[in-house]
Amino acid sequence: MAVNLVPLRIEMLAQEVVDAQSSFIRGKGLFIKIEFIQGLPLLMGDRDLLIQVFNNLINNALKFTQEGGITVFISLQDEKDVLICIRDTGIGIAPQDRERLFEKFYQVGGGGRHVGGTGLGLAICKEIVQRHGGRIWAESDAGKGSSFNFTIPVKS
Ligand code: ADP
User: Fold this and answer.
1) How many domains, the chain?
2) What domain range includes position 83?
């Protein structure tokens, strides 16, 4: 995977992805919104790869959310890292599955989930985030939704 890091504003990139997806998501009766703190720093990122991460996490959120919607939230994790959270109000993920989600080919079964896809999406997201020097993890209240969070270092 070739990574081409350039200075960019992650909130602008996220806004583009949200704008591109919003009519489709609203057509499904769900909301999508973006919130970010003012004065976020520039970071070094690969535009195309980060768009792939946003699209992947938003599409997953969409697959497992029947009511409510998706919030993209961007803030600072600490002075060296930007924190991006993609939260949904969907079916959530049980604690025992949360650890393994980012493994290649891992899929969560049962509980009325339709299993489609390849089980590769989150493994690819992890690879991309790690190539940027960041980390990715999931939080969830089973039944109340999930939050997929990742950090990207700010431009030094
Ligand atoms: P797939 O291509 O099968 O969707 P992923 O790697 O993207 O594979 O996701 C792995 C598993 O994580 C999926 O099978 C799905 O059950 C679960 N998952 C991913 N995102 C969410 C989410 N937002 N809410 C609930 N479950 C999720």
Assistant:
1) 1
2) 6-153
DSSP letter (8 states) at residue 50: H
Tokens of 156: 């030094």
Which atom of ligand 1 is nearest to 122's Cα? 6
In a domain, 1, yes or no: no
CA of 40 to the centre of ligand 1 (A): 29
Sign, Cα dihedral of 11, 15, 21, 26: positive
Residues at CB less than 6 angstroms from ligand 1: 60-61, 64, 88, 90-91, 93, 101, 106-108, 113, 117-123, 146
The domain spanning residue 94 has which CATH number? 3.30.565.10
For the chain, 156 residues long, give each residue's pLDDT as a single digit of tens.
899 999 999 999 999 999 999 999 999 999 999 999 999 999 999 999 999 999 999 999 999 999 999 999 999 999 999 999 999 999 999 888 888 899 998 888 766 566 577 789 999 999 999 999 999 999 998 778 999 999 999 998
